[in-house]
Amino acid sequence: MPEHAWVRPTARVVVLDPGGRVLLLGARLTDPAVPPGDVLFWYTPGGGVEDGESVREAAARELAEEIGLVVEPSALEGPVWFRRHVGSFAGVQVDSRETFFVLRDVVHEVDATGRTELEVLGAEPHRWWSAADVAAAEEEFAPRELAAVLPELLAGPWRRPPRVVD
């Protein structure tokens, strides 16, 4: 890893509907100076933790911003997963330290009006995916092993320590 990577604590939420489908957003932006292209990968709602904010509070705030879903931080189950991802965005190396929570039985129509300027620029699509859809897809996901770890979450409330996922 480059020694100048920006370490970014990140909060994410695995949003599940009553049928066990997961809500994912399609990442299309690699640099704000470059128009977004096709979906590069699908990921759970979430984003950076702001100063003075807990990871759980950040996760709830990100749900409101990205998909228009307002929940109390205490409604989030977990943390269930931890993930570290190092990658480049706009020429900057970002070392994302991701903490994932779960929100179950969500019935919600995505409302993107609260997205940040950068999120609006990316014009990201959203889609509800079944575990079978994820497993059968040729698409990329974040975490990469989503198809393998999603069934554990669907089995019921998480009652163990968080696991590390890739």
UniProtKB/TrEMBL annotation:
Cofactors demanded by this protein: Mg(2+)
Any Pfam family the entry gives: NUDIX
Record key words, sorted: Hydrolase, Magnesium
Domain of life per record: Bacteria
Keyword Hydrolase found: yes
Domain Nudix hydrolase: 6-154
Record GO terms (molecular function): hydrolase activity
InterPro entries listed in its UniProt record: Nudix_hydrolase (IPR020476), NUDIX_hydrolase-like_dom_sf (IPR015797), NUDIX_hydrolase_CS (IPR020084), NUDIX_hydrolase_dom (IPR000086)
Protein family: Belongs to the Nudix hydrolase family.
Protein name: 8-oxo-dGTP pyrophosphatase MutT, NUDIX family
Organism: Geodermatophilus dictyosporus
